[in-house]
Amino acid sequence: MSAASSQSTSLSLEHATVAYGERPVLDGLDFAVPHGRFTAVIGPNGCGKSTMLKTLARTLRPRAGAALLDGRPLGEWRSKAVARRIALLPQDPVVPEGITVRALVARGRHPYHSPWRQRLPGDDEAVDAALAATGVAELAAQSVEGLSGGQRQRVWIAMVLAQDTEFVLLDEPTSFLDVAHQIDVLHLCQDMRAQGRSVLAVLHDLNQASRYADHLVVMHAGSIVATGSPAEVLTRDLVADVFDLDAEIAADPQSGTPMVVPLRRG
Amino acid sequence: MRARTLPLALLLTSAILAGGLATLAWGELGVRLPDLAEAVRGEAGTKTVFVLERLRGPRLLVGIGAGLAFGLAGALFQTVTRNPLGSPDVIGLGAGAGAGVALATLFAPGLVPAPVGAVLGAGVAIGLVHLSTGLGFASPARVIITGIGVSAMATAATQYVVAVALRDSSTQLAGYLVGTLNSRSLGQAVLIGVILLVLAPLLALLAHDLRMMDLGDQLADALGARAVRTRTWAILLSVLLAAAGVAVAGPIAFVALSAPHIARRMVGSPGPHLVLSALVGALIMVLADFAVQHVGPVQDLPVGVITAGFGGVYLGYLLITAWKKADA
Question: Do A100 and B223 touch (CB under 8 A)?
Fold first, then answer.
């Protein structure tokens, strides 16, 4: 799979204001997706994490400012061209009735097709590679509806991989999964980064974000309040300010990365 | 076309042909295969020509054309609203057409032909839905809820006209309100044929992005399928096709609703299945028309009564299986 990541490419927000109705959720936000890294976006509920992700994926349009791909507003790109560069896995995607694993993963090839060319020579290889990379090759002929939550999430990630984009945006990919499958998904995110893709995922678990991502973006009330490596970002003060949580920051016994340990009530 | 689509399409086409030939051949006035061959060579007797060109030929062709149009309309509509019970009828197309005919007969008797009244009424109903949602056809839930409201108003208008104002001509109107293939003309067959031919290339273009719509708007967008735009075009084409069907055959019920389901079940994989839905729609019409022409107990009923009966049973079956699935 090719995921070119030359430094000339970029996906960014420039003074982006995004609002639902009258209430601005993002207010003049500046942000560039870090290149070739696995970035976790963290922050309390309602801070604008998902909104930022959706704006970068062109699902939402900024009311003021812009979302830019290679410096050009996303709205000026052809939809298919954007879809060949940016993949998005929504929080709760819809499984089409009766679809097989392979057919769902093959949907990832849509951006490369047109009404005149509905199959391309590389399609089967891309789908096979995506199935293998996510460990669901042996499920290929099964119906997606019959799979467990963890298997299903692997299949969705396989679809995103088949899309073969340099930017991969994941909206809370670990929610609703039991802990072993959460770790699975985080490993897959690391694998995608190892292939040269820029991965941006909204995560809830601070310790998982700290341990598996190589870059953190902390959001609070529609703004980015801190960015950097987990060691730089996750401090006692930040956790207190942003999450309203008194916690000790310890070293993760496995990875040495910062681990947030809430203080006991007392 | 996917692997299973082609054999199924051939099977359905053969069934439509067989049903059509049987409809032509049955009974006293029957035009059988040798007569057809003579007619093609221009050597047929006047009786055969009369039956083919005036009696059974046009209604068969109109039935097939309207069936194709209704099948396509339903497949488009259900795909982009992700609602298995969706069809242009749900958003008031049939009811609007009926009200259009009734009001035209009431206010401009003899001036506005029934098909024109039907298309106008359907257009007004769909226009109302488009305006009242506040978002055009972008939100499936709003389209359906508004459509139910508009549909109810249109039905009320029709009932008012039929009950109060048109007691005398209501029998004649009844055929138009449920849809009929009685006394069709070759002109109507040509009309529906031309509309299908004109819209076919647009449908072929739209089908590409339409296939992604069952993933939800966010993913469809993320894959470059432009969900809102695709939905708006699909509903527009669905309404045009259904309106064309209504113009030539009246608001025939449930063909648009049930044809896509039957097609989907035959294939067993997700997708809009436009071609198969169209063929199933045509087959339903041919079979229903055969019944009203040749099957004793239902003879001479408007064909819409048969499709409504058939569709009602199917709808019930659909709801029961859906509930069972939900409970399981």
Answer: no
Residues 174-203 of B with CB under 8 A from A: none
Q: What is the pLDDT of residues A134-172, one digit of tens each?
A: 999 999 999 999 999 999 999 999 999 999 999 999 999
pLDDT per position as a tens digit, B10-39 = 999 999 999 998 888 887 777 777 777 777
Whether B251 contacts B89, CB under 8 Å? yes
**Domain end point (choices A164, A181, A215):** A164
Q: How many domains does chain A have?
A: 2
Q: How many CB pairs under 8 A join A and B?
A: 72
8 Å CB contact of B215 and A84: no
Name the DSSP letter for residue B163: I
Q: Which residues contact B197 (CB under 8 A, 6 or more apart)?
A: none
Mean pLDDT for the stretch of residues B240-254:
85
Q: How far is it, in rounded angstroms, from Cα A59 to Cα A55?
A: 6
Domain assignment of residue A204, given as a range: 8-85+165-266
Same-domain pairing of A153 and A173 = no
Chain B closest CA to A230's CA: distance in Å?
29
pLDDT at A209 over 90: yes
Please tell me whether residues A146 and A263 are part of one structural domain: no
Number of structural domains, chain B? 1
CA–CA distance, B213 with A254 (Å, rounded to integer): 44
A99 and B212 within 8 Å at the Cβ level: the answer is no
pLDDT tens string B183-203: 788 888 998 999 999 999 999
The verdict on B322 touching A (C-beta cutoff 8 Å) is no
Confidence of residue B319 (pLDDT cuts 50, 70, 90): low
Chain B: closest CA distance from residue A103 (Å): 9
Cα–Cα distance for residue pair B181/B175, rounded to 1 Å = 9
C-alpha span between A142 and A133 (Å, rounded):
17
Contact A100 B269 (CB under 8 A): yes
pLDDT tens digits, A57-67: 998 899 999 99
Last residue of a domain, one of A164, A180, A199: A164
Q: Please tell me whether residues A173 and A251 are part of one structural domain.
A: yes
CA distance B138 to B232: 7
Contact B225 A113 (CB under 8 A): no
Residue A119 near chain B (CB below 8 Å): no
- Do A121 and A54 lie in a common domain? no
Same domain, residue pair A199 and A248:
yes
Q: Is A170 on the interface with B (CB under 8 A)?
A: no
Residue B192, domain CATH: 1.10.3470.10
Domain extent at residue B82: 5-327
End-to-end CA distance of chain A: 54
Q: Which residues of B touch A81 (CB under 8 A)?
A: 224
Inform me whether the C-beta atom of residue A192 falls under 8 Å from chain B C-beta atoms: no
In a shared domain, residues A100 and A204? no
